[in-house]
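Many introductory courses stop at the sequence. We go one step further.
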Amino acid sequence: MKPDVVFRPSAVPFEAYPDADEKTQLEALGRSNQLKEYAAYRARVKDHPYNPSYHFYAPDGMINDPNGLCFWKGKCHLFYQAYPPADSRQHWGHLYSDDMVHWHDLPLAIYPDKEYAVFSGSALAEDDRVIAMYHGRWIGNMIATSHDPLLLNWEKNPANPVIPILPDQFESMGKPYGIFDPFLWKEESGYYALSGCFYGNLEERGKNHRNIMVEHLFHSQDLTHWSYMGELAPGGFPQVERGNDGACPYFWPLGKRYVLFTFSHESGPYAFIGDYDPVTHRFTPDRMHKFNFGPVGCSSYQAPCAAPDGKGGVYLIFNTKDAYANLERKGAMSLMYHVTLGEDDKLRIRPVDAIASLHDACCEIQDMHLASQVRQTLDIRGSALDLQMRFKRGSAHAIRISVLESADRREHTDIVLHMPTNHRPHIVYLTVDTAASSLSEDIQSRIPENTKFDLAEDELLNVRILVDKCMVEVFVNDRVVLMQMMYPTLKDSDHVSVTAVGGDANIESAQMFTMRSIYA
């Protein structure tokens, strides 16, 4: 425990709600002072040019890690690290949705008291309750439970912290394990929990070990008494650079395999795919998927949060960091992604289908020829768009799609699909370049994001670009997704254009929609 930290209950006035049916709880929410303050904030900022229109952002300014994604009584619940103005230590904020697109604010769920702050964790929905396991800053991992219809009232385990940090954990790396962001699940033999940790045990693992990323495994029958079981993946994690940690772990079945989503403070979020032995409780990862391809910080993905879809897939969401220095709103969530496992044992990633409920005006294209080096401005404009385009590559070695583009191209965000014809023609390289996205001097610069994927020789390029004022998420053939932040300043930076580079290409078909706001 840090001796210089003052532990005190939250300064935010606590709000309790009736343990009753959903209708009664909704009526009580109408009297919530927190929700009135949230509504006033959203009304004040909803038209800001750099506040998303269909991505969730905090109702009072700053947001950090998403936590505890779960499904309870027909609703999707998501928690997040909130920083209420009355007490800027982390609390668990709370929202729910019927479709994972339209989100509704709820009051704060978990407040700090004996812990200094409420850090990240997960939630497990059982038949009669939801269990939250989170990290209590400076003291260890904590348990809280709720059973009411909207998960408004939470009761903390009297034995908290149920997994205390070891003495001097933050000053020494010579301990058997470290305690940080926990993930909770249940098997026939009881409850299991992962604890991500900044520090691996270098003394035992050896200075020349290829990485120090560790996920510590614990077991309990009653959620109060926990025993340490060693590392989840004793063989380590493939292709992870030395110095990466395993924060915010989420470990779920995916098809016939398992996937571990986690976050490194060095290089961003990962997904590790492998096999899990339910007898030894050990995970053997053999494949990795990266989500971030540049510095962690401005304009990057941050922590993951995931929950099973009940059909062998997983829902996944991230928080993101802004790159604009003078913005009142700090951070936002990505869209909710649906993740499955392809026949090639690689992830398939797409936005949830309900995003189509926001479609407004539509523009369609059929069989448009793209002559080499000729920029074609498309017949759609807007700062909130869903662009779904199918390309035939032809002889072009690249296709450039520009969004939030001004008529004079002083501002533009480029999505480029590189298809080198003289080197590994089945590989496509995707780049999202924001170097010319904004004329503002307050933007923190970022190198272009780059990734690659396989494409069959006769396979069309299926590109989906979701633009939301200051954010763009790009999905290509469900194999990769890239996210970037951008902040155009010119009033006419709302054009879309397409250019074939080094040869001809063809837009086989396209549906392009303007998007309604979830904050109307």
